Amino acid sequence: MSTNRTPSLRDLEQHDAFVSRHIGPDDQEIRHMLEAIGHDSLESMTDAIVPGSIKSSTPLDLPDALTEEEALARIRSIASNNTVARSFIGQGYYGTHTPAVIARNIFENPAWYTAYTPYQAEISQGRMEALINFQTMVADLTGMEIANASLLDEATAAAEGMALAQRKAKAKSDVFYVADGAHPQTVEVLKTRAESLDIELRFGPAADAAGAECFGMLLQYPDTFGHIGDHAALVEALHARGALAVVATDLLALTLIASPGSWGADIVIGNSQRFGVPLGFGGPHAAWLACRDAYKRNMPGRLIGVSKDVDGNNAYRLTLQTREQHIRREKATSNICTAQVLLAMRARPWGPW
Predict the structure, then answer these.
(1) What's the pLDDT band for 252 if we cut at 50, 70, 90?
(2) Choice among 118-127, 188-197, 202-211, 307-316 with the minimum mean pLDDT
(3) Where are the domains positioned within the chain?
(4) How many CB atoms within 10 Å of residue 78?
(5) Which of 45, 74, 196, 276 lies in the 20 to 30 Å Cα band around 242?
(6) What angle do CA 186, 190, 193 make, to 5 degrees?
(7) Tell me, which fold does domain 109-347 have in CATH?
């Protein structure tokens, strides 16, 4: 009588998959690596690599280890000293509600919160499908042709927009005009980035940009005080001078007001904090950049695209990576295009868009 049986689903599961992917090499793998480079221990390898002038000869003065429960109790004790108050800061930061199902299954799920960039596309299909939904949401709300899969924060996204405008504008000026009403934290980051790019920043009322010699301008829409302007004529005047319009906006506001793309914006930036990402004492919050399709080879950040696999099925992938710093090095479109994957995942539309 044969003892062969069809293995159960339980038998086929890889029970240690998470540990092997996230904990690092085991003792046998460490010994194999050390033998390959000619050392008998990690300590001897460290002694050979780290100069004695900077290597500490005394062990770190660390307290005794805590169990997980003890560590959580310590953290709760520290957190209880915080005074929770209602925030009226505005300026791109607003109180939000995160549905419990998103908090449990995304924010508190290590399969998501350890995510950075899905370089291994064949095992990252779910993550990339979520990110392409994020891109689609941003493109639809902004009225632009293409959007990336997140940036670091709104202020640095504005700086990326300024750099992109400089690369693509026909105007040969080195002046970037910043309209009154931009968020103050955005202005400070623009000042820092402009200095390294030899860009001259000019500040003033939005209307004055129509006659300014500049390669581009930044409009906050709605502005930091909540004002909503009609900028179609101004953008048309900029285009007549060969300059580009960079618009910093609020995704939630765009569900009610005209999209920047509908009145001629060239580059649109912002963050997705309004869509269920807590304030977090200032961050992190997933930013994004949307623009005209003609600029896609020069835009910063990750782009998710759709291809066909050998069976003709849709397959998600990172696309146009020739722009990226891990391939082009110093010639990349940006070297600080950090992708806030976890926050973009929380903010993306969950359901048909």
Answers:
(1) very high
(2) 118-127
(3) 109-347
(4) 8
(5) 196
(6) 140
(7) Aspartate Aminotransferase; domain 2 (3.40.640)
The whole-model pTM stands at 0.78
Rg, the chain, Cα only? 25
Residues present in the chain in total: 353
Give me the pLDDT at residue 39, please.
Answer: 95
pLDDT in tens, 127-180: 888 889 999 999 999 999 999 988 989 999 999 999 999 999 999 999 999 999
DSSP β-bridge partners for residue 216: 176, 244
Mean pLDDT of 235-258: 96
Q: Can you tell me which residue has the tokens 């038998």?
A: 11
pLDDT at 236 over 90: yes
HEC readout, the chain: CCCCCCCCHHHHCCCCHHHHHHCCCCHHHHHHHHHHHCCCCHHHHHHHHCCCCCCCCCCCCCCCCCCHHHHHHHHHHHHCCCCCCCCCCECCECCCCCCHHHHHHHHCCHHHHCCCCCCCHHHCHHHHHHHHHHHHHHHHHHCCCEECCCECCHHHHHHHHHHHHHHHCCCCCCEEEEECCCCHHHHHHHHHHHHHHCCEEEEECHHHHHHCCCCEEEEEECCCCCCCCCCHHHHHHHHHCCCEEEEEECCCHHHCCCCHHHHCCCEEEEECCCCCCCCHHHCCCCEEEEECHHHCCCCCCCCEEEEECCCCCEEEEECCHHHCHHHHHHHCCCCCCCCCHHHHHHHCCCCCC
Strand-pair partners of 270: 288
Distance of CA 335 to the CA centre of its chain: 13
334 pLDDT above the threshold of 50:
yes
Distance CA 25, CA 102 (A): 32
Q: Report whether pLDDT(88) > 60.
A: yes
Does the pLDDT value for residue 64 go beyond 60?
yes
- 269 has which bridge partners? 248, 289
Rounded Cα distance between 33 and 29, Å, is: 6
